[in-house]
């Protein structure tokens, strides 16, 4: 039989340098709508100027967008990286003006729209850095705390997608749990099951099992790198002791020992490289599964009973990540500080430092994503403090 589905509008505002994230947002909404339409009776409709604005004239182009988009949407998502966009007659940029309009409406209603801001913390090519744009962005970001805002930071595309899916799940469940409000634009549509894409048969506990299995893979990769770090540290100390014990005066013997040290470091770099590949794949699969679990958990009873335990489990993972960063950061400092003795050791040193930088970046991304998912769980719990 046909069923009623509530359609909620999501407006996305962003400058031009986050086009990949805008595409990821659209893909995430399309995929998760298949779950929400059946489990929560919710569908999110993405509103953006590319598809919801037609050519017209007003005092300026942003005024055209403001008029045609309106302010009746339910969720505002802002995404920023290194730019804020072009200024308008009323604000430092179009995206900032769109945020300010959403924020003013939120202050009036103290309820809608839900405002979610994301800032990308990733290197920018020097040729693409605009100092004025970057300063304006930092000023805007700094102003949010005074407005009572909490924003999310992501390191890379997988981290953004996982964080976004978890946050959207929290928002969807919030809207599903509350009765329609006159302040919130909610449209009832009759949707036939035949019109909805085939839904994934996985349930909450299936996704949790996938998350736990992939998390175990993440831990295994991190443990392998930690063990390799300890091992190469012992090897380097041994080579150094051998040189100091009597081979330093013999250039040929010293060079052989240095060559062995370089071989040890190259082997270590290879280990890191192979484990990073496994870690990155497992991270995306684990966090996507967790986000999917949160998206469909609205059917569970009692509501939220499992979430405090899950939140604590994720906090433990963050602690493990911080421990791994501490170990590898120390090794990076040691490797980078090695004297320039031979071409072999210099090349090995660069390789190790490069791989450790990639590993630390992977850990940073995992940690940032976990922080965002924990924040989504907090939303589901209604801001309950950690216990």
Gist of the model:
This protein is of the alpha/beta class and 387 residues long. The protein is built from ten helices and six strands, in the order βαβααβαβαβαβαααα.
Helix-strand layout with pairing:
Blueprint lengths: L2 E11 L5 H21 L2 E6 L1 H4 L8 H9 L5 E6 L13 H16 L4 E7 L10 H13 L8 E3 L2 H21 L9 E5 L12 H44 L3 H46 L10 H30 L6 H38 L7
Helix pairs in contact: 1-6, 6-8, 6-10, 7-8, 7-9, 8-10, 9-10
Features:
about 375 residues, globular
Descriptive overview:
Strands 1, 2, 3, 4, 5 and 6 form a six-stranded mixed β-sheet that branches. This protein has helices at 19-39, 49-52, 61-69, 94-109, 131-143, 157-177, 204-247, 251-296, 307-336, 343-380, and strands at 3-13, 42-47, 75-80, 114-120, 152-154, 187-191. The two termini are 44 Å apart. The longest helix is centred in the last third of the chain and has 46 residues, at 251-296. The chain contains ten helices and six strands; from the N terminus they run E-H-E-H-H-E-H-E-H-E-H-E-H-H-H-H. The chain is an alpha/beta fold and 387 residues long. Helix 1 (19-39) runs parallel beside helix 6, helix 7 (204-247) runs antiparallel to helix 8 and helix 7 runs parallel beside helix 9.
Task: Output mean pLDDT.
Answer: 87
Q: What fraction of the residues are assigned to beta strands by DSSP? A: 5-15%
The main β sheet shows up as:
6 strands, mixed
| Helix and strand sequence | EHEHHEHEHEHEHHHH
Contiguous helical run count: 10
Structural class: alpha/beta
| Count of distinct strands | 6
